[in-house]
Amino acid sequence: MAQDIELGAPPAGMPTYEERQAIQIVPLRGLPIVAVVIAFVIMAIATNWLWALAFCHVVGGGLWTALDLFVGLVIGPILGRLPPSARAQFTMRFMPKMVLIMPTVVVMTLAAGFQLALRLGNLSSSSPNHIWLICSFCVVGVMAVIALGVLEPANIAVLFEMKKPTPDPTIIEMLMKRFIYTAGITGAMQVLTLIIMTRVSTQ
Amino acid sequence: MTATSHPLAGTSRRTYPPVAAIATVALGLVVIGGIVMASYVPRQAPLALPGALLAVAGALMLICVLLLIQLQDFSFDRFFQVFGWALLAYSISAGMIEFAFVRDHTRGTSLLIVTMMLVIFATSVPTTIAFTTARYATPPSERDGQGKEPT
Known about the structure:
Number of domains of chain A: 1
Structural class of chain B: mainly alpha
Number of domains of chain B: 1
Number of helices of chain B: 4
Strand content of chain B: under 5%
Number of strands of chain A: 0
Largest sheet of chain A: none
Number of strands of chain B: 0
Mean pLDDT of chain B: 85
Radius of gyration of chain A: 20 Å
Oligomer: heterodimer
Largest sheet of chain B: none
Structural class of chain A: mainly alpha
Order of helices and strands of chain B: HHHH
Order of helices and strands of chain A: HHHHHHH
Distance between the termini of chain B: 22 Å
């Protein structure tokens, strides 16, 4: 039992049991903001309001691209060089926010983007942008499968692991690596999206 | 610190069938089907390929259910806890996409295929998230006397 008690005491700098129990896997305070954003996107689609559709698509896409690039190419390498205690402290505060932010900006971008393309006639096979939009669908499709099938599950699983009385650092390490690497891959793919979208808007 | 003294020893090393991977492949297939259908909008898309992809994705999801049913010493309470909330979240996303297709006058067999694809989407993602979370949760055989999953 003495060994178990020793295991329960976190090393210096590591979040305490009480701190970890305070983690909200889905931050409830953010839910009203998400509800407002989703309601705005639904309203934009329902009314086919050009400005609102463009706003949702541009703002959502900008945030999505910037976050993917920033997390994958800036935060990831920094996090990898931090001591485990700092990594744990950062992860505990960072990951719950990503649980809300990423799905919201993705839904906002894709739903508004599809409607916008339809409204502007870019989806029509006679449009010079048609082929570019199909390329964009393919890039987004790959990113969606990576984000929903690998990144998001790793994000949630890390948070549950951190809430355990005795988290397993090897599981957290493995899942965090998965999160950072996949964020890097989607970040790199976002560069393709930037190229495609700037082509579409200038043709 | 010995392996046997650690309450979670072996949790990460336990092997499970590839439920998350299969559900992700199912998701990938409906995404491809969705791209094929979206690439024809506003025209009517040929439905053979999306229909075939949907059928395979549905079969894969059925395999996931069968694999889950056969699991023993698995944290099903954690699985269903996460699955329920994720299902709610992704049902809202799927509902929004469905709304956009209905709004754009998608009707008949096309709408049926889109709806079924969205059902696969709204169940495959929660399955992957819930399975990934539950596979690292403390299984019933390693819990204390109360049998509850420590959170």
